[in-house]
């Protein structure tokens, strides 16, 4: 390992754990929950309703995990969190009814808030490293972008070979054997004073102060909520809405599969240019790409080429937005309290955006897929408008 690569080991290590973490704690449900519903004599809506409650419960714990990272750094938070996550996944293999499933999913999603993106971002920011925090965050998301690409087929294969019970055991073992040692080893470096911040190692980014700081937090949160309303709707309704435009289910699914890889493309592009890109620019670029994708689907989505192009543009924007969600609060408000701040952002966003699939499904049912996509574009426009109200700390007097 060359000396130049050593400072990047924590970001690369956490990137690997995000692949496993998101794959086991998020994407595996899409494959295994339907089979669990059949075997446990539960309806599909019931098991996914339990999952929604689990995600909401996880959001409640997100501020706690962020505060712990701010206070103690991320090594023990993420190490013990991954032990808990592994135990929760193994517990899922033992459920026999709704109560057991409810308890196991709450346990799993609660543990997930101690090992996934927000905690990883905060943990990297606490490390005393020569790698700027925004760049480290970009590297982590670059890895995490392939989680669905790897774990959907992997989980499907495991389920076919072993069944859902043993599949959960294997996934829990993967978290235990991969994530626990990586979290323990790569985060062992000295933690720096959270009042110092790491953005200054490569960028002289002033923080918002006084009234502008309060305004910045308000409008950033509102913009995050508007922009966060769209991905859940896209994930749940892409195939249905695209079919409503006249495409087959197979064509719609193929175009939807394009979104994931292009998230990674967008993140790779952002990583290449991030040295010269202020996070406010990164965020509005992500909104522009997502919006461009929806404009294309509304105008040219009746053709196959238009549908695929729309998926690619949207995927790139959504991938970059994940990075901006971590770097923009760091740039505007600094490293002090960063973990707690990300936790509250996650809590508010998850609480509000949980209704997105239901709201846009109603729009699809009543008005049709084209109008449902149009409503998503309107949400992104609202996100841009509220973004424009965020004070820029680089301007004199802010």
From TrEMBL:
InterPro entries named in the record: MFS, MFS_Riboflavin_Transporter, MFS_trans_sf
Membrane topology of this protein: Multi-pass membrane protein
Top-rank taxon: Bacteria
Entry's localization field: Membrane
Keyword Membrane: yes
Gene3D superfamilies: MFS general substrate transporter like domains (1.20.1250.20)
Designated name of the protein: MFS transporter
Keyword terms: Membrane, Transmembrane, Transmembrane helix, Transport
Pfam families, alphabetized: MFS_1 (PF07690)
Keyword tRNA processing in record: no
Residues passing through the membrane, by range: 12-32, 44-64, 76-95, 101-124, 136-155, 167-187, 218-239, 245-262, 283-305, 342-363, 369-390
Chief localisation class: membrane
Species this chain originates from: Mesobacterium hydrothermale
């Amino acid at each position: 390992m060359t000396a130049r690569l050593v400072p990047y080991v924590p970001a690369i290590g956490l990137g690997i754990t995000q692949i496993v973490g998101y794959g086991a704690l998020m994407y595996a449900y899409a494959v295994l929950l339907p089979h669990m519903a059949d075997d446990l004599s539960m309806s599909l809506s019931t098991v996914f309703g339990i999952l929604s409650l689990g995600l909401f419960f996880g959001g409640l714990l997100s501020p706690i995990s962020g505060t712990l990272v701010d206070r103690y750094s991320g090594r023990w938070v993420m190490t013990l969190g991954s032990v808990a996550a592994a135990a929760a996944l193994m517990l899922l293999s033992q459920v026999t009814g709704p109560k057991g499933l409810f308890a196991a999913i709450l346990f799993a999603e609660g543990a997930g808030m101690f090992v996934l993106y927000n905690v990883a971002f905060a943990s990297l920011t606490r490390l005393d490293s020569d790698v700027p925090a925004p760049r480290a965050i970009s590297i982590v998301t670059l890895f995490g972008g392939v989680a669905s690409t790897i774990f959907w087929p992997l989980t499907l294969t495991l389920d076919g070979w072993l069944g859902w019970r043993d599949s959960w055991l294997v996934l829990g073992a993967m978290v235990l054997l991969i994530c626990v040692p990586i979290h323990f080893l790569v985060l062992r470096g000295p933690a720096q004073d959270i009042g110092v911040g790491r953005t200054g190692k490569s960028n002289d980014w002033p923080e918002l102060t006084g009234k502008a700081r309060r305004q910045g937090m308000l409008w950033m949160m509102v913009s995050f909520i508007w922009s966060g309303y769209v991905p859940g709707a896209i994930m749940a309704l892409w195939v249905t809405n695209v079919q409503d435009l006249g495409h087959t289910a197979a064509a719609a699914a193929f175009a939807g599969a394009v979104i994931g890889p292009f998230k990674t493309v967008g993140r790779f592009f952002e990583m290449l240019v991030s040295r010269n890109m202020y996070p406010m620019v990164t965020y509005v670029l992500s909104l522009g790409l997502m919006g461009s994708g929806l404009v294309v689907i509304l105008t040219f989505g009746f053709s196959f080429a238009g549908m695929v192009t729309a998926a690619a543009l949207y995927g790139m924007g959504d991938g970059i937005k994940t990075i901006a969600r971590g770097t923009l609060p760091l740039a505007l408000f600094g490293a002090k309290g960063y973990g707690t701040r990300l936790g509250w952002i996650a809590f508010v966003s998850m609480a509000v955006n949980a209704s997105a699939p239901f709201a846009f499904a109603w729009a699809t049912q009543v008005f049709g897929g084209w109008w449902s996509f149009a409503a998503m574009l309107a949400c992104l426009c609202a996100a841009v408008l509220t973004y424009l109200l965020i004070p820029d700390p680089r301007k004199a007097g802010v």
